[in-house]
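so my prof wants the structure for this chain in the tokens format not the other one, which i didnt know existed until like an hour ago. anyway here's the sequence
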Amino acid sequence: MRKGLVVTLLLATASCGQAPREERSSQDLRTMDVAEAPPPPDTAASRAGYAPPSIGPTAAPGVAFNYRYAFRLSGERISQVQEQHAAACEKIGIARCRITGMSYRLTGHDEIEAILAFKLDPAIARAFGKQGIAAVNAAEGMLVDAEITGEDAGARIAAATRGQGASEDELKRIEAQLARSGLKSAERAELQVQAQQLRDRIRALGAEKTEQQESLATTPMVFKYGTGDLVPGFDGRPRLKQALQQAVDNLAGGALWIAVALITLLPWLVLAGLVLWAWRRWGHRLVRTREPRPLGPPATVTGAPAEA
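here's what i got, hopefully its the right format
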């Protein structure tokens, strides 16, 4: 009987210890539904030594971070990866991830620029960025620029709080002076101006404090996509082919420009040729008709001179 009681107590203790562990595990999965991204695949970028460093900001209470990533992919895969990133944000939920901006622009022949902007829960921002990099690597793209900046919002909040407290104390002192009787009109007007300035300062500090608190509540993140020669997965032959294609395109562009110039100048060239032909055909006749005729010898007068 005593042994059965001991076994029962041991089982109960084990179940109680296992339940919190399971609860913590499920909670960790919920808080990190974009948990540490898997290592990037073996792409040309990683083999060439261009893999991005696995560095992120450490836990810093009171610091508002801003994440910016730039990717290079082939043009036909940009929209696909952009949709994957948007779907990942939507899967997390609007309470922890929101899409705040999107653009997709064709800037030239096979040249694409795209942007996707998010507002994230600070607790999952780094993991979401790593997952975004992994999705680009899986699409044979690469990370070409990463920037994580931080602003000490906690210090600014503390400074705004201190400024509010000092301004409120000063406002109370001035209001107490205004409550006294026997103040001169000029002195009362000056105190009223000072009180209004303090109220404006308190409001401005309150707005700054609210803004900094909001920056701590959400973390902005921007993904920029673009095409270019930095797309991994291409060996020397595709690069040579791309160079030849570029040369052909340049030649075709130059021929097109010459054709446009000739078409533009052709009517004037034809007109100049007609004028030159007409001058050679009839110009000498016009010159002859306009030449002055030579005068003949002076006429002689015959007969006897008149008598005086």
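also thought this was worth mentioning. Strands lie at 63-72, 97-108, 111-120, 142-152, 219-226.
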